[in-house]
């Protein structure tokens, strides 16, 4: 959902709006959209800097889809044209053979009119993008790729809890995931202050909810926790300062800070997070907000590894399942 193009705009009176028109093609077990689930056929293209792509990295890890769905990682910066594979030798993805992710979009849609976003899934045989619908993507990993889940994979979207998960997800997306962007890209003081108030009202509501329970829905990790985590983990590193979400740092919100540390220390979460890439992306790419391109040295990130005490609330991180094993060696976060 992070874009190299124009999916982020300022509307009337400076209020930020997001273009939410994505490629809705789905990869399903029955192949009803023409793209059946097939191990080895598709490549997930993500960027560790991007919170929307980070969701797919976490869910892919938790479900054990590494062998079925290969991973291409773009670097943390891009220009107005496209995300690029500048982390790879020769700055070319070794599977897709391209430097610009936009080439996969244009291979399917020669006149693609929108920004080039991650995450995206590419059909390797044709080199064509299949989908960039980040919200549906992780749900389909959970519900359509079940034949390729690892033994002990958790139920991230259980039938009995879907209505509640959907309800929580709507709040988290509108007020938190997108709320920080609404603050950061506000084009006027009034729009910024309204966005700021909405964001912290929602964080207070979530803090109250999580003061009584270890996870957002049920007694185990679900899709809802994945979606909230990727914003919280970036909060102090970029959103507090860069996006002016500065009523408090996450580390000054006791419940949410403990909750975020609990998840960070859970296999599949913190081992997908690259703080260096996160900071580089936001402070370099958003030149309208940070024209000098200076990337701050701080904050001190050592607190992410401190005890959180959330075990006292009960719950089982993986429900009846088990933790994922360590990441494949090529996917280890440098210095992680």
TrEMBL record:
Family matches, as Pfam families: GST_C_2, GST_N_2
Domain GST C-terminal: where? 132-282
Instruction: Identify the EC number(s).
Output: 1.8.5.7
Q: Which GO terms describe its molecular function?
A: glutathione transferase activity; oxidoreductase activity
Which residues are marked as site: Lowers pKa of active site Cys? 239, 282
- What positions does the entry give for glutathione binding? 83
The keyword Oxidoreductase is annotated on this UniProt entry: yes
Question: What's the name of the protein?
Answer: Glutathionyl-hydroquinone reductase YqjG
This protein's species is Nocardia aurantia
| Assigned keywords, A-Z | Oxidoreductase
GO cellular component terms listed in the entry, alphabetical order:
cytoplasm
Enumerate composition-biased segments (Pro residues).
Answer: 323-336
Top-level taxon of the source organism: Bacteria
Q: Where is this region: Disordered?
A: 297-336
| Gene behind this protein | yqjG
Which residues does UniProt mark as catalytic?
50 (nucleophile), 181 (proton donor/acceptor)
Q: Which Gene3D superfamilies match?
A: 1.20.1050.10, Glutaredoxin
């Amino acid at each position: 959902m992070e874009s190299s193009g124009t999916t982020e705009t300022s509307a009337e009176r400076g209020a930020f709006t997001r273009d939410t028109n994505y490629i809705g093609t789905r990869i399903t077990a029955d192949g009803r959209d023409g793209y059946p689930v097939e191990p080895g056929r598709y490549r997930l293209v993500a960027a560790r800097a991007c919170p929307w792509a980070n969701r797919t990295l976490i869910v892919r890890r938790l479900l054990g889809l590494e062998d079925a769905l290969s991973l291409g990682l773009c670097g943390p910066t891009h220009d107005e044209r496209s995300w690029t594979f500048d982390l790879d030798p020769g700055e070319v993805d070794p599977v897709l053979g391209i430097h610009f992710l936009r080439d996969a979009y244009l291979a399917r849609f020669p006149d693609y009119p929108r920004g080039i976003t991650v995450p995206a899934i590419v059909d390797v045989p044709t080199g064509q993008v299949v989908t960039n619908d980040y919200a549906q993507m992780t749900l389909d990993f959970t519900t359509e790729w079940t034949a390729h889940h690892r033994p002990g994979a958790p139920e991230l979207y259980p039938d009995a809890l879907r209505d509640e998960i959907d309800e929580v997800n709507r709040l988290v997306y509108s007020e938190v995931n997108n709320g920080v962007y609404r603050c950061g890209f506000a084009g006027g003081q009034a729009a910024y202050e309204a966005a700021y108030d909405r964001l912290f009202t929602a964080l207070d509501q979530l803090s109250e909810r999580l003061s009584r329970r270890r996870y957002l829905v049920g007694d185990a990790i679900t899709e809802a926790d994945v979606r909230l985590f990727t914003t919280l983990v970036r909060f102090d590193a970029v959103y507090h300062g860069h996006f002016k979400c500065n009523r408090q740092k996450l580390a000054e919100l006791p419940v949410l800070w403990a909750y975020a540390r609990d998840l960070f220390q859970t296999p599949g979460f913190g081992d997908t997070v690259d703080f260096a890439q996160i900071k580089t992306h936001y402070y370099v790419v958003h030149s309208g907000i940070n024209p000098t391109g200076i990337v701050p040295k701080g904050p001190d990130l050592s607190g992410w590894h401190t005890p959180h005490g959330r075990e006292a609330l009960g719950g089982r991180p993986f429900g009846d399942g088990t933790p994922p094993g360590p990441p494949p060696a090529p996917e280890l976060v440098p210095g992680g």
